[in-house]
């Protein structure tokens, strides 16, 4: 029955009759675990193609083991949620038997559940739990993990429905590879009408259903590296539109609001980018990185432990070597003490013998010192006489040098005096010459000065005469101006009288013009009208002015 169900779930071709024949009752007794495993590997697992429903396979395995291992104590989660936690455990557990989930993966799962419930993560509480867990074992089994989540230790204040929804959301993401899901409107390809559908985004496909129970599937959008998604402007009364372009079709979709639209566009773009790069879904890649990191840390820890063991072994060897060296040193110290004792005894004997020889040497040395002192005294006296003679020789040399230098200085002074006398005579002659030139210059300057004084006197006399003439001309000018003013006043009076008379005549007689007798001699015309004197009078006055001017010059 087990083999038949396994073949059915895994889509492995099989013959029920052959299975019945293979496992018929015989005298060999029941099949053991070790006896069934070779058959399971060879005839079932090696024929699996990978095109089976993994959820159904997990349900079958859950059915086989849940009743026997699941805790009988009441939990906050139902059997369906416990099954999902069990499947998540299989995904996150380590790849060695018996299967356990390490504290790092427990923290990751609890964080995901807390985030899905909309609660805050309590890191301090988990750290205390982690410390208590590490002191007893390496991790939890599947049934212990179900008890931990079902106990509500990390979901206090949350009701059963919230916890169940959080487990379902994490199950969809980690096991079913659901990257995003939700209701949106889709435009039809034939009728062009808009219909609400439940969309489910997976790493390489977008499926859409009638409702979120996933019973009535309406179609798929196959994603690959050539797909793209772009936002569309609002049209036909629909808002928050975006377009998914594939090789064969394009799909117009309308989100409920701008935030949902942006989230879907971002999620689809991320999925397409992963497909282009050939990378797995984010949660699987993150799990692989966490696993590699744990393996690296484990290898480093093992290496550290190995180094510690090597250091401990080396330390023990060193301790043994030190103990051996200490014993050797103690033996050497004992030998050295014995030798020191012998050496001291020999030294005492030698010291006594050397003392006698030293006394004899002291006496000989004393005699030699007395002789050396006497010789030293004689040598000192001889050296004193030598120093005195050398001092006298130096003094004689200095006296000779001083006398020689004095003669040289005397000769130099004598030459300097002779040169100074010659220069003084030359300067005296030059000064006498300059004195004669100065007297001649003074005489010439006196004559020139007298001549200049005579010329100055003549010019002063001429200046006085010119000043007198200028004063006379100034008086004449003033007189002429006075006469001019008088004549001007007379002319103004006459002009006023004539004008008033002419105005009266013109007023009374109209256009009558008076004929006046003219002058016999021609009148001079000035800027102010007819002149007050004749041309003959003007010539006479000009002659008088010229005569006065010549007389003044």
TrEMBL record:
GO molecular function annotations of the record: DNA binding
Native organism: Chloroceryle aenea
Cell membrane is among the record's keywords: yes
GO cellular component: cytoplasm; lamellipodium; nucleus; plasma membrane
Residues in PH domain copies: 177-273
Domain of life of the native organism: Eukaryota
Gene: Swap70
Subcellular compartments: Cell membrane; Cell projection, Lamellipodium; Cytoplasm; Nucleus
SMART domains in alphabetical order: PH
Subunit annotation: The SWAP complex consists of NPM1, NCL, PARP1 and SWAP70.
Descriptive protein name: Switch-associated protein 70
Protein task: Phosphatidylinositol 3,4,5-trisphosphate-dependent guanine nucleotide exchange factor (GEF) which, independently of RAS, transduces signals from tyrosine kinase receptors to RAC. It also mediates signaling of membrane ruffling. Regulates the actin cytoskeleton as an effector or adapter protein in response to agonist stimulated phosphatidylinositol (3,4)-bisphosphate production and cell protrusion.
């Amino acid at each position: 029955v087990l083999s038949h169900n396994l073949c059915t779930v895994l889509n492995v071709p099989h013959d029920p009759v052959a299975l019945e024949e293979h496992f018929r009752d015989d005298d060999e007794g029941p099949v053991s675990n070790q006896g069934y495993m070779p058959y399971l590997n060879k005839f079932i697992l090696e024929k699996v193609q990978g095109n089976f429903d993994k959820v159904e396979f997990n349900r079958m395995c859950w059915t086989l083991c849940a009743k026997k291992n699941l805790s009988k104590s009441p939990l906050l989660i139902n059997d369906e949620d416990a099954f999902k936690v069990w499947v998540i455990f299989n995904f996150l557990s380590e790849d060695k038997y018996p299967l356990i989930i390490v504290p790092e993966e427990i923290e990751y799962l609890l964080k995901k559940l807390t985030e899905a419930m909309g609660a805050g993560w309590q890191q301090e509480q988990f750290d205390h739990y982690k410390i208590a867990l590490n002191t007893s074992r390496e991790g939890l089994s599947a049934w212990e993990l179900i008890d931990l989540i079902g106990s509500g230790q990390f979901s206090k204040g949350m009701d059963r429905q919230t916890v169940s929804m959080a487990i379902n959301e994490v199950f969809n993401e980690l096991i079913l590879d659901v990257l995003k899901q939700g209701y949106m409107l889709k435009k039809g390809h034939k009728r062009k009408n808009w219909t609400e559908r439940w969309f489910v985004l997976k790493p390489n496909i977008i499926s859409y259903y009638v409702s979120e129970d996933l019973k009535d599937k309406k179609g798929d959008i196959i994603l690959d590296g050539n797909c793209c998604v772009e936002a569309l402007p609002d049209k036909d009364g629909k808002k928050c539109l975006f377009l998914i372009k594939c090789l064969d079709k394009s799909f117009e979709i309308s989100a409920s609001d701008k935030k949902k639209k942006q989230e879907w566009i971002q999620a689809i773009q991320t999925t397409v980018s992963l497909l282009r790069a050939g990378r797995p879904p984010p949660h699987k890649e993150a799990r692989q990185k966490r696993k590699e990191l744990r393996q690296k840390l484990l290898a480093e820890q093992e290496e550290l432990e190995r180094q510690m063991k090597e250091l401990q072994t080396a330390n023990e060897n060193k301790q043994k070597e030190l103990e051996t060296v200490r014993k050797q040193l103690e033996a050497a110290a004992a030998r050295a003490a014995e030798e020191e004792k012998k050496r001291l005894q020999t030294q005492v004997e030698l010291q006594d013998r050397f003392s006698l020889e030293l006394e004899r040497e002291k006496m000989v040395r004393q005699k030699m010192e007395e002789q050396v002192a006497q010789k030293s005294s004689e040598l000192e006296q001889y050296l004193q006489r030598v120093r005195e003679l050398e001092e006298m020789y130096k003094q004689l040399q200095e006296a000779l040098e001083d006398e020689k230098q004095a003669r040289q200085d005397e000769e130099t002074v004598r030459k300097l005096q002779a040169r100074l006398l010659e220069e003084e005579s030359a300067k005296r002659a030059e000064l006498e010459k300059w004195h004669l030139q100065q007297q001649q210059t003074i005489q010439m300057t006196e004559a020139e000065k007298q001549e200049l004084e005579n010329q100055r006197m003549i010019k002063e006399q001429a200046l006085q005469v010119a000043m007198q003439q200028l004063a006379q001309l100034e008086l004449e000018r003033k007189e002429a101006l006075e006469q001019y003013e008088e004549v001007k006043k007379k002319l103004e009076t006459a002009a006023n009288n004539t004008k008033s008379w002419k105005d009266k005549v013109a007023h009374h007689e109209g256009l009558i013009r008076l004929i006046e007798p003219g002058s016999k001699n021609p009148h001079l015309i000035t800027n102010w009208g007819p002149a007050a004197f004749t041309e003959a009078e003007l010539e006479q006055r000009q002659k008088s002015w010229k005569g006065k001017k010549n007389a003044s010059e």
